[in-house]
Amino acid sequence: MQKANHSVTEFILLGFQEPPKHSPILFTVFLVMYLLALAGNSTIIFIIRMDTHLHTPMYFFLSILSCVDICLTTCTVPKLLASIFVEKKSISFHGCFLQLHFFTTFGNMTGFMLAIMAVDRYLAISRPLHYAMLMSKAVRTRLVAGSWILVSLHAGTHSVMAARLSYCGSNEIHYYFCDLPPLFKLSCSDTSLNELLLLTEATVFLMSPCLCITISYILIIITICRMPSTEGRYKAFSTCSSHLTAVVLNYGPVLYTYIRPASAYSLEKDLIISVLYSVVNSMLNPFVYSIRNNEFKGAFKRVLSKIISFWNK
């Protein structure tokens, strides 16, 4: 039992309270998903780095997205795996808010990268002659750096404000990582300001990239409809299909979780939804971007043949 935040030294994470006999199954499922996320995203980064045919803006942004996915899952899954078999599933006070900060940072960065990639697709389809200049290396670097600064400031604001709340009664978080909604439920302080900030600022940070994506695809559709040949329309749309799939997978769970008043939160449902956007999406994105991408599959074969040739020397 804790009376105030200055006396709290740790939180107890009670996200997955399965019977002991189910622990090996739970551990295996999360371990497999985590390893697939690491392997898939690392492969994408490696292939893009090694094959010069993929040294384009689109694949540069995809490699950044893969890095973000690796960091996002690493914020939560290793701690979850370590706590499955131990009786006391604790995390230190400072560790909790550090986890909150980085999870919020990388979660928001995912949305910003998807928005940048949508704009990139629009410019590639509608302005092909000026595309290289509009998406130069300097522009790409500024877009990523600017997004990183914004999401870091956003996450820092929320994590600091949440850390300054008083936590009394119980220090048990019915979640598998430190996130804002369950921390608000645990606090005995007035969280109305925190909730208002979360609802307004998170709406801006979530909906601005979403709006950017929507506008980009409206313009893309208009451009595609004006193309004279069916083959050209199909080729243009095929370059966007993977990105659209990733957008749906990301924004569905995230909007459900955060664009609601605190009174509407259900920890049980949100626990499942959080697994989708923090683990499952990171595992699926490499498959989404590679399975139907002939350009990437060609690069994968070229890099693999180089590795085999080097190995056989």
SSE order, one letter for each helix or strand: EHHHEHHHEHHHHH
Number of helices: 11
Q: What would you report as the Rg, rounded to the nearest angstrom?
A: 21 Å
Q: Which class in CATH terms?
A: Mainly Alpha
- The average pLDDT is 83
Write a brief caption for the model.
By secondary structure, this protein is mainly α. It has helices at 23-50, 57-74, 77-84, 93-126, 131-134, 137-163, 180-186, 192-225, 230-258, 267-290, 294-312; strands at residues 10-13, 90-92, 172-173.
How would you describe what is shown here?
- With 313 residues, the protein is mostly helical.
- The chain has one domain: Rhodopsin 7-helix transmembrane proteins (Rhopdopsin 7-helix transmembrane proteins).
- It is 74% helix and 3% strand.
- It has a three-stranded mixed β-sheet with strand order 2-1-3.
- α1 runs antiparallel to α2 (57-74) and α2 (57-74) runs antiparallel to α4 (93-126).
